[in-house]
Design brief:
4-stranded mixed β-sheet; Aspartate Aminotransferase, domain 1; alpha/beta; EC 5.4.3.8; Glutamate-1-semialdehyde 2,1-aminomutase; binds 4'-deoxy-4'-aminopyridoxal-5'-phosphate; 16 strands
Length: about 450
């Protein structure tokens, strides 16, 4: 019979782990008190308060696959800044690029030769012919949507239930019995969802066809496999259907590769020959410096350049904003990441270790008869508390267990293993070792043994 996790036992273990955390982290406790005096909520971004710790763990430093806290404890970092540090902390090539360029000035609102090199490298790697920069994946998605609206003259953005694409208003939506409502926890922000949003379940071709039939959807914004509610892989044939149906409906397709870049050096798009109108990639692309890129077809680029032509509008931004976008420092570091860091060899290493992690977690699940499953997308693993791989966001959501998640994460953190706070994602970087992976597997095994004892 499948083992069940008793909530009362989980509460007990959580309380013990909170106590243990308090004993281990006195300096973080002091900084947390200090932080509350000047930062709203005590942290620079409220998400930093969302870890399962009684107060935030303060980072002292990080190198490779390791984070050190301000009390001097070392952690195997399998969160890697929720992908932002996917190619390792303080990667030597990135560090050198930052130092080299610091002497040349950061930003002047003028293009650099590095920018041309970045465009060429992105073209070669991902296949889309023309590129633009943004400061974050959120911004890149917002600009991609704006472009699709310009190209189609339509307003609606279709997303998949359970998605996350950043702080993009149109996407913070759920379908409640046919009514579009703000997603729980996100305020409406004056958005008229009925007019500008549509939402369907992933992997459901009929629902997609129906939603596109009205001819009023400007774009579908999709991760090629969902990654923000656990991993929901695309079923065979779904991407073909998605592309055919969007084309037939005159709807543009934006593929957001911000997380699925774990698949391989050319992302899921190259590995599976996808053919989007717009391609978005953020987070890891400049080694931790805030930056994102979006690639586009010639047709979309024509729409953009037509619209943003100097003589076309009185203001200089056209709604595609960001004074620091494409600055010289960022482009220099991004060029280095593309040339020296995101290499096939790095991916071979990361994917090999992710396979080791997948096998280890699978063994723990089987040994304790947990009725969970583990999925892998290249260098990224995810375990979910349900026996089978979900087909859509709704199924993935049903498999979530916030108490189990929090207890597990705090237990692992207290044993020197960091997982991303919002779900059980385990990510490899080029500096991760087999010993790091095995440490996670052993700590997971210890956790399960403790809770089931
Ligand atoms: N797209 C996807 C798929 C993401 O997972 C995220 C963030 N988790 C974003 C976009 C937004 O990235 P950022 O917060 O860096 O803007």
């Amino acid at each position: 019979m499948t083992a069940t996790m008793d909530p009362a036992r989980l509460e007990q273990v959580l309380a013990e782990e909170e106590e243990r955390y308090r004993r281990r982290t006195p300096r973080s406790a002091e900084l947390a008190v200090e932080g509350r005096r000047s930062l709203a909520g005590g942290v620079p971004l409220h998400w930093m308060g969302n870890w399962p710790t009684p107060y935030p763990l303060f980072m002292g430093g990080a190198a490779g696959a390791q984070v050190t806290d301000v009390d001097g404890h070392e952690y195997v970092d399998l969160c890697l800044g929720d992908t932002g540090a996917m190619f390792g902390h303080a990667h030597p090539a990135v560090r050198e690029a930052m130092i080299r360029h610091a002497r040349r000035g950061a930003t002047a609102m003028l293009p650099t030769a590095d920018g041309n090199a970045v465009g060429r490298l992105l073209q070669e790697r991902f296949g889309l012919p023309l590129w633009q920069l943004a400061t974050s994946a959120t911004d890149a998605n917002r600009f991609a949507i704006r472009m699709c609206r310009l190209a189609t003259g339509r307003d609606k953005v279709l997303v998949f239930a359970g998605k996350y694409h950043g702080s993009v208003d149109e996407t913070h939506v759920v379908d409640v019995n046919g009514r579009l409502e703000p997603q729980p926890g996100v305020s409406r922000n004056a958005v008229d969802f009925d007019r500008v949003s549509a939402v369907v379940e992933f992997n459901d071709v009929d629902a997609l066809e129906k939603a596109l039939a009205g001819g009023d959807v400007a774009c579908v914004l999709a991760e090629p496999a969902m990654t923000n509610i656990g991993i929901v892989p695309a079923v065979d044939g779904y991407h073909d259907a998605l592309r055919e149906l969007t084309r037939a409906a005159g709807t543009k397709l934006i593929i957001d590769e911000t997380h699925t870049i774990s698949t391989g050096p050319g992302g899921y798009t190259r590995a599976h020959d996808l053919d989007p109108d717009v391609f978005v990639l953020g987070k890891a692309i400049a080694g931790g410096i805030p930056a994102a890129v979006y690639g586009m077809t010639e047709e979309m680029a024509g729409t953009l350049t037509d619209y943003t032509r100097k003589e076309n509008h009185g203001s200089s931004h056209g709604g595609f904003g960001g004074t620091l976008v494409g600055n010289a420092l960022t482009l220099h570091v991004m060029r280095t990441v593309l040339e020296e860091v995101m290499t096939p060899a790095a991916y071979d290493h990361m994917i090999g270790l992710a396979s080791r992690c997948e096998a280890g977690v699978q063994e723990v699940i089987a040994r304790h008869d947990l009725g969970w499953h583990v999925t892998r997308l290249g260098a990224r693993c995810e375990y979910l508390f349900a026996p089978s791989v979900p087909r859509n966001g709704g199924e993935a959501k049903a498999a979530r267990n916030p108490l189990l998640n929090a207890t597990l994460h705090l237990f692992l953190l207290n044993r020197g293993v960091l997982l991303t706070p919002f779900h059980s994602m385990v990510l490899m970087c080029p500096a991760t070792t087999a010993a790091d992976v095995d440490r996670h597997t052993a700590a997971l095994d210890e956790f399960v043994g403790t809770v089931l004892a």
